[in-house]
Write a structure and sequence with these properties.
By secondary structure, the chain is an alpha/beta fold. It contains 13 helices and 17 strands.
Amino acid sequence: MQCGLDTSPPVHRWMRDSLDRSAFTRSLRVLGVRVTASQTTTILKSEPLKRYILDLPKTRSVVSDPSGEKHHRLILLKIAEEAALSQEARSFLQEQCADLAEHTIDLKYDYWTADEILQSILPEELCGDSPTGFSVTGHIAHMNLNREYLPYKHLIGQIILDASFRPKNPTIKTVVNKLDSIDTKFRFFKMEVLAGEPNFVVEHHESDCRFTFDFSKVYWNSRLHTEHDRLVQLFKPEDVVADVFAGVGPFAIPAAKKGCAVLANDLNPDSAHWLSKNIGVNHVADLVRASCEDGRDFIRNAVSLALQNPFPAYKGPKLSRMQEKQQQRRRKQEQQSSGVNPPDTESPHALVLPSRSEVTQFVMNLPDSALEFLDAFRGILAPLAKAEGQLGGIYGTMPMVHCYCFTREQGPEKAEADIRQRAEDKIGAKLDEDVSLQFVRSVAPSKDMYCISFRLPRDVAFGR
């Protein structure tokens, strides 16, 4: 049964510069069934009346009797006239000795969704697709408003912020809009505050890791969390990962949590600063080494950095605090019973496994220009060529390279052909080992983001 009640917000298309929340009120006159408290369940479940019971969102269908009768309740119906009741329903109410009474429901601003409020404010020609979509990073709601909505940007921001105080997004304190301009050197988007406090330092949780950073000075995209997880899952705990454009650590830190050793680099000093802080906060300082240099220099130096200062061998999954305590208690009991300190069996393989000195994975997450850096791989192992015998067999298998990029070619086959050709042109060789292409997301009409993964050709690495 249709409600028949007009619950839409009042239209106020005159609003533009400021939001008047008090203007959004609507009073609904409905009928209620006055019953004793003990009759409430019987009425609510009765077949003749079930379809008439009020079912508005955020509105109780049973309220106290306004007449003040302590043991009576008012069951609200979604009709305003008794004539709307069927004969069967009226007969049932007579059998229950239940009276009908008028009741007023007052709907206020916070009853309606952000989309409903915007539909009542924006010009009709802009109501087809209300701009209520946003991504959340920490306490910041990040919008990307189309040009036609910019005259209403502060109204939109305030409405989004108001909606966030409801259970869905209770942590949002700031709403920002991405500006057209982008930092040309460090590739982060400039933004303006639409509503809320001008605080850009956020704490964001992803992949069981905690990231803190200044959202206005570094690049972060919450919509890439699935891709971050996908790639990290490809890594083995024994891997040494060279993260060329590491940002604040969305690949590096989850990889380290898994057990990987990571060389993490970013040219942006602010990214490198927050990366270092996140390494400490997530307790992976023994596995992640941060740097701040040009991506080409980092690619050329990564091999020698790992070789000259190897990472400790992988010791197996890290014990939780409870497991560590249990192990300590067990060792103490063994010591007390035998009188001899038991050997440290926490990681028996750590005594025999070699340290990690071979980079096995390169990550290049700078889709706008990462392909242009592939020429830096030419000859990265050439300095080691003369000493190849003394390397003890490392780099018997070439490292994998995971390079993110954009393409305007539509369709998997055309996209792969375009990306593969550009990668081969830049690296200077055919890619024919362990090559795969992963679609990541569409970023704009006719512009898609992909990740091409391939085994670095040996001839390229040794500059042959």
